[in-house]
């Protein structure tokens, strides 16, 4: 026991002796990134679709359950995602969604701000779009969707990862109609601020 105390004391003294004072002007602040692309004030959304994708998302609005605009988003509360899109392909009776999560942060290596992917270890892959968003079928032609989303099962993870920063969600929807090859049918990137 005494030898353990002596060893830890020696380690603490050595660490203190080796500590290098950091000039505050050169210290890297990991949480000092400004919100990019006006995400402090509004959702920023754009298509990440490839040329073969059949659904084009044109407009997105987020409201609370009463239809009042909601921004920033509180993932602990259900909300409505209104989408205006166009489906150039067939009716989709079944779809699965893969979501990648990024956080806007300052790199400890470069000191520059950028999007860094947060590993989700597959937890956000293969989400059943029909069950989760209750949006099936996705018919051919104009799509005016009002999707009630409840992210509360993921809110603790999202809130922990995004404290005081912007997040980016890259959402890829895949065709799971019978006989399909599970090809991507649309991809949307949403950059936003979460409470």
What does it look like?
This protein is 15% helix and 36% strand. The chain is an alpha+beta fold. It has one domain: Immunoglobulin-like, CATH 2.60.40.770. The strands form 2 sheets. Strands 1, 4, 5, 6, 8 and 9 form a 6-stranded antiparallel β-sheet that branches. It has a 3-stranded antiparallel β-sheet with strand order 2-3-7, with no helix packed on it. Keywords: Signal.
Name some characteristics of this structure.
3 helices; alpha+beta; 195 residues; 3-stranded antiparallel beta sheet
Helix-strand layout with pairing:
Layout: H1 2-18, E1 44-47, E2 55-63, E3 79-87, E4 95-106, E5 113-118, E6 127-128, H2 129-133, E7 141-149, H3 155-161, E8 166-175, E9 184-193
Antiparallel strand pairs: 1-9, 2-3, 3-7, 4-5, 4-6, 4-8, 8-9
The CATH topology assignment is Immunoglobulin-like
- Listing every helix as H and every strand as E from the N terminus to the C terminus, the arrangement reads HEEEEEEHEHEE
Question: DSSP helix count?
Answer: 3
Mean pLDDT figure: 81
Using only CA atoms, what is the Rg? Answer: 22 Å
- Tell me the domain tally: 1
CATH architectural category: Sandwich
Helix content: 10-25%
Q: What CATH first level would be assigned? A: Mainly Beta
Poorly predicted parts: 1-30
General form: globular
By secondary-structure content and strand pairing, the structural class works out as alpha+beta
Please state roughly what percent of the residues sit in beta strands, choosing from under 5%, 5-15%, 15-25%, 25-35%, 35-45% or over 45%: 35-45%
- The total beta strand count reads 9
C-alpha termini separation: 48 Å
Major sheet: size, sense and barrel closure?
A: 6 strands, antiparallel
Keywords: Signal
Protein name: MD-2-related lipid-recognition domain-containing protein
Organism: Pristionchus entomophagus
Signal peptide: 1-19
């Amino acid at each position: 026991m005494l030898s353990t105390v002596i060893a830890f004391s020696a380690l603490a003294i050595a660490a203190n002796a080796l500590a290098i004072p950091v000039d505050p002007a050169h210290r890297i602040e990991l949480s000092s990134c400004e919100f990019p692309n006006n995400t402090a004030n509004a959702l920023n959304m754009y298509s990440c679709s490839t040329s073969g994708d059949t659904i084009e998302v044109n407009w997105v609005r987020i409201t609370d359950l009463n239809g009042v605009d909601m921004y920033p988003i509180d993932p602990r509360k259900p909300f409505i995602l209104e989408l205006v899109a166009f489906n150039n392909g067939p009716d989709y009776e079944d779809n699965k969604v893969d979501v990648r999560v990024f956080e806007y942060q300052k790199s400890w290596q470069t000191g520059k701000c950028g999007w860094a992917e947060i590993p989700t270890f597959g937890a956000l892959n293969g989400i059943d779009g029909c069950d989760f968003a209750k949006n099936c079928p996705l018919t051919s032609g104009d799509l005016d969707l009002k999707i009630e989303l409840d992210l509360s099962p993921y809110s603790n993870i999202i809130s922990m990862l995004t404290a005081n920063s912007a997040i980016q969600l890259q959402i890829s929807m895949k065709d799971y109609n019978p006989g399909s090859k599970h090809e991507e049918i649309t991809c949307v990137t949403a950059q936003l601020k979460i409470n």
